[in-house]
Amino acid sequence: MEFTTKTKQIKPRSKNHLKMYFWVLSFLRNYMWLVIAFLLLGLLIHGITMSIPRLIQHFIDNTLPMKDKQSLIEVLGFLIIGVVVLLCAKAINNMLQRLISERTLRDIQISLFAQLRRLGFSYYERHSTGETLSMFTSEAQAITNIYRHHLPQAIHLLFMVIIAFVMVFQIHFMLSLIIVPSLLLYYLFGARFAKKAALASRSSHDSRMEVNQTIYNLLSGMQEIRANHKQAWSFKQLSEKCSVWRTKAIITMFWLQSRGTVRKSLVHFGLFAVFVIGIILVKNDQISVGEFVAFVLYYEVAIGRVTTLITNLTEQRVLMYQIERIYGMAAETPEVEEPVSPAYLQKVKGELEFRNVHFQYRSDVPVLRGIDLNIRPGERVAFVGTSGNGKSSLLKLVGRFYDPAAGEVRLDGIPLTRLSNDQIRGSIGYVFQETYLFGNSVKENIRFGRPDATDKEIVQAAKAAYAHEFICELPQGYDTLVGERGVKLSGGQKQRIAIARMFVKNPQIVLLDEATSALDNVSEYEVQKALESLLKGRTTLAVAHRLTTIMDYDMIVVLNQGQVEEADTYNALMERKGLFYRLVEGGDRAG
């Protein structure tokens, strides 16, 4: 939650981890019957498992001394039936565990993607693509580990610990008190190592994210790396990051191993004490041999499962460090809130009004100050000025990617804050400087503008965008795959595909953010022809870099230090010989 919303900084404190844990568990509510079935089967499994030491006690104390064949048959029969039921229950239990974990993981990923859709531009400006992708890979895997391994194991361990403690105290109360100092020492000596392991694991996870981001950056820039013969440099960049990650991973393993060694030593110390005292009690006839054997088995289960449970919870705490980013993103509030009861425009005309609009990305750096503009339906308006004067920011306010810090933007007389984002963005066509094409066919990339568009409408849109001719020359025509980000097409071809999208979408308002600035003269000429066709009868707001391309616009708004310096037609501004005149005379480029 930053900008108007500030992102919560999740601190490594237990109460924050508890909130995160409850958030992870909240996804189980849709599968409560499966969870209840899982718990009941767990009780059955551990009830059978924990009855075995008592059965051994009965066998040693009663069946063996009396050589009772009937009792021996009963014991064997119970064991056989118990094993069959146990195997069946475990199979069903494992299936339920897998089903619950897979479904909840799917729900979490869908929920996260839905949240990413709700968040505004500021989130993507603050977080790298590699970091966001990591949420769906390593962080999501951490949640999977909780659902698939740690949580089911913790539940099973808890059942066994409760039963085992009841049994040891029932067999011999005084002997069972040895558990208390064993667990106390276990906790005191192990807690320090556990904390070190958790912190080291978090540091290692952060380094792994840096490696992922480095790989993403290097792959994205592979063309530049090869062109500039920087393969050695790229290898060094990745090697250094991997080296840091490897070092931190080794430190993490050291603390985890040290924690395990210390705790196991304390467990063995407690078991040794049980053997010594237990043998004395057997010699003094204070406990039978069968009870002593049963006690040792239950003690091993009790102390062993308690220590395993503590280790399990410690590992879950380590996983909580990894889930922090997902939780922080899920807790982030979009800076652009949907109205509770939105107004609705039956037909969007395309009239835009800026009323004393102030805007800033950060609290101390104003971008726009006191903007007052009235743009009539179908009017074409260009924004010019030097770089950093808020031209692109104005377009983002129209699309309601941000809200003004003060003042308001109106569409057909209604404040954007009272309209739904779906209606606002459904009425707008946006052509960026860098067109993003998906890695599927040309046809599907054009259909992206309106998913229900027919093949005939797609061809008509391509013709209107002056794209039909080059599309037909592609190997499979409209079915040709364009490659990742449209790598198989030129810049001008990609822009014309983007314009074809707009024809399919048929918006009333078109926003052009330096749509031809990255093109050569030939490509720009082709795209300008397509734009002329697209803009007829539509309200158009354009950020221009070549000032001669906006000579016939209805109004040119010159921005200076976030304010409107002057606004008029091209000829009127040139006659005035103000800032616009100086920009034109200075080289026919702005921004």
Secondary-structure map:
Layout: H1 14-25, H2 32-66, H3 69-118, H4 121-126, H5 129-171, H6 173-176, H7 179-220, H8 222-227, H9 231-283, H10 289-331, E1 352-362, E2 365-375, E3 380-384, H11 391-398, E4 406-411, E5 414-415, H12 421-426, E6 428-431, H13 442-447, H14 455-464, H15 468-472, H16 491-505, E7 509-513, H17 521-535, E8 539-543, E9 555-560, E10 563-568, H18 570-576, H19 579-585
Helix pairs in contact: 1-10, 2-3, 2-5, 2-10, 3-5, 5-7, 5-10, 7-9, 7-10, 9-10, 14-16, 16-17
Give a written overview of the molecule.
The chain starts with 13 loop residues before the first helix and ends in a 6-residue tail after the last helix. It has helices spanning 14-25, 32-66, 69-118, 121-126, 129-171, 173-176, 179-220, 222-227, 231-283, 289-331, 391-398, 421-426, 442-447, 455-464, 468-472, 491-505, 521-535, 570-576, 579-585; strands at residues 352-362, 365-375, 380-384, 406-411, 414-415, 428-431, 509-513, 539-543, 555-560, 563-568. Helices cover 63% and strands 10% of the residues. β1 (352-362) and β2 (365-375) form a beta hairpin. It is of the alpha/beta class. It folds into two domains: 14-331, ABC transporter type 1, transmembrane domain (ABC transporter transmembrane region fold, Up-down Bundle), CATH 1.20.1560; 352-585, P-loop containing nucleotide triphosphate hydrolases (Rossmann fold, 3-Layer(aba) Sandwich). A six-stranded mixed β-sheet has the order 6-7-8-3-9-10, with helices on both faces. The chain has a four-stranded antiparallel β-sheet with strand order 2-1-4-5. α5 packs antiparallel against α7 (179-220). It is elongated and about 115 Å long.
